[in-house]
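We modelled each protein-ligand pair independently. The example shown here corresponds to the pyridoxal-5'-phosphate entry; the chain sequence is given first, followed by the ligand as SMILES.
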Amino acid sequence: MSDYFMNAYHRLPVTFTEGRGARLYDTNGKSYLDFASGIAVNCLGHNHPALVRAISEQAAKLIHTCNYYQSDVSLVFAEKLVKACSGAGMKKVFLCNSGAEANEGACKIARKYSLKKYGEGRHRILTLNGSFHGRTITTLSATGQEKFHRDFGPFTEGFSHVPGGDIAVLDRALDKKTTAGLLIEAVQGESGIVPQSEEFIAAAAALCAERDILLMFDEIQCGLGRTGSFLACEAYGVQADVVTLAKGIAGGIPAGAVLAGDRAAAVFETGDHGSTFGGGPLAAAAGIVVLDTVNDPAFLAEIARKGKTITAAAGGWNHPMIREVRGRGLMIGIDIEKNAWPVVEACLAAGLLVLGAGQKTLRLLPPFVINDREIEQGLAILKAVLDSAA
Ligand SMILES: Cc1ncc(COP(=O)(O)O)c(C=O)c1O
């Protein structure tokens, strides 16, 4: 452990040196199966040949330009990304570096959209209980989990939270005199893989359309193929006004995006927003490889199939430690009888990386390139760990 890092993370006792596909290796050469993907980031696994080639070649040509100009690769990336998200109605993109930054952009779009059309006082943004939207002061306001709201106030005002699934409460909370936007994770990640119901999302879309409130999906964890459709909201059959992406968007190179559909695409005018590194050539080159690989029906179908293999296997154990297995694609939550953290640590010791979510949920986010043999091996480790924890 280092004396030099601030103590912001609970770090597990392992130091990695390299990875290949769904495997990582530590300083002792010990191998680990990766069912975490760096929290949904390494979607193409580690050391993916096309990704490494694109990044290396781009690094030798042009790493940064700043947004006074554009680069050949950022033009291609933006076009491919908008087209990949067109099923949800997206027309334009603003490129940035992270999830929190993408959600900040979304909140700014909702507020300006509303201000220009309706004037002052209609700036509230509604999110769901259990949501996670980032660690900046504003995205913490948006995050509907009390435990993140300690010690750092005052937070940005104008955010409130409602329970997911309760259409009557949502109907009352979406007050058209005060509300600019509704920000939703179609499948919540951080709080334990919680998919919203189709009825709830359909009602949210109808209410937002009727009241001219922007419907915004935070797809930072659940987007980019993770649930088996390119965007998770697409599977609900609704059109969004804004979609935010980050995490896996450039396969591990920091990047984020705010996309907007017809109502919101022209809200940002020159000088309204910016980001020094956003959409830089290196991230764009990496992002093109991710999009070319993931935005393919056959590849997405494989994500869904692999996810079903895992949920069916873990569900079929009828294990005394397991309360529920749920998921969409390769975004899987396993509720267990005991605290998740000791199980996460025991899995690590046994050579498997899994994540915790909430208190008693194991979160599995394997890379999309994981193969059936690796899935089998990882599940065998998980079962053995749960057997000894029971
Ligand atoms: C749904 C969601 N939104 C936003 C964020 C924040 O992303 P970042 O850590 O890149 O700022 C996360 C990170 O876990 C997330 O899962």
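The domain at 51-294 is CATH 3.40.640.10 (Aspartate Aminotransferase; domain 2).
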